[in-house]
C-alpha cells in the first residue's frame, strides 16, 4: 500500500531528528548533558594512550624521538574537565539542534547540524581549553600531576596561561565539531531512510567511526598548530597562530603539519565509534523513561 502524505511527513520528521512530542528544552538539555558526559568519559579513558602518543609526536621538533612511557599521564585530572566539557557540549548541541531543525526546511538539515555543532563547541571551550592545556603539558612530561600543572601555570603565566592557544583551539575545534556532527547526523539520516527503522548500536558505531576518521584527517594541521601553542609554556617560542605556521614551514616544512595524523585518525575514528554509540544508547535509555506518546511516528509502513 502507498504511504499517506501525513504519515510520510511524520517519517521524515523522525528521520531528521525532529521532536515528535512537544519540545521540552530542559529535558533535552539535561538528557544531552548526561549522555554527553557518559560518552566523553568512556572515550577518554579508553583511548588516552593513543592521544598521548599523538600529542608527543606533534610537540617534538625536527627529528626528535618520542617517549613511550607514562601514556596515561594526566588522565585523572583530564577526566575532571572532560566530564563537564562533554556534558556542556551535548547539553547545548541537542536543544540547539532541535530548535534549528524545527525552524529549517528539510533540505537545510545539514546547516542545522553544522551550526549546532559549532555553538556546542564554543560553549564547551571555556572548560575544554584549560583541560587540554593541562593534559598536553602532562603528556609531554612537563608536570607530574594536574594540581602541580595548574598551580605552576597560574604562577608563571597567570590565568591566561590556562587558556594558551585558545584561538588555535577554536580554529581547530569549531570546524571539527561542526563537521564531525554534521557528517554523522547526515549519514544517519540517509541510513535510516534506507533501512526505514531506528539504527542499532553497531550501525551507530560504524557511522561514528567514519565521521571521526574523515574529520580527524582534514583537521590535523589545525591540531598541530594548537598543540604547539599549548605546550610551549612561558618560553613563548611562537607569538601566535600566524607566527607558529611560518616557523613550522621555515624550520620543518609543510609535512610537519601532518605529524601524528596516524594516531590522530585512529584515535578519533575509534573514539567516534565509542562516543556516538554510547551517546545514542544513553539517549535511548533516558528517552524510555519519558511518558510514551502512542500517537508518535514510527517506521512501520502499513
Secondary structure elements and pairings:
Layout lengths: L4 H11 L9 H35 L15 H29 L5 H31 L6 H12 L8 H30 L5 H18 L1 H12 L9 H12 L8 H28 L14
Helix pairs in contact: 2-3, 2-10, 3-4, 4-6, 6-7, 6-8, 7-10
Structure, described:
The structure is a single chain. The chain has 302 residues and is mostly helical. 72% of the residues lie in helices and 0% in strands. It contains 10 helices and no strands. α6 runs antiparallel to α8. The termini are close together. Residues 1-8 and 294-302 have low confidence and may be disordered.
Q: Low-confidence parts, pLDDT < 50 over ≥5 residues?
A: 1-8, 294-302
Helical fraction: over 70%
Radius of gyration: 21 Å
User: How many DSSP E strands?
Assistant: 0
Overall, the morphology is: globular
The portion of residues forming beta strands comes to under 5%
- The secondary-structure element order is HHHHHHHHHH
> On the 0-100 scale, what is the average pLDDT?
84
- Total helices: the number is 10
Would you kindly provide a brief summary of this structure?
This protein has 302 residues and is an all-alpha fold. The chain has helices spanning 5-15, 25-59, 75-103, 109-139, 146-157, 166-195, 201-218, 220-231, 241-252, 261-288.
Summary keywords:
302 residues, disordered C terminus
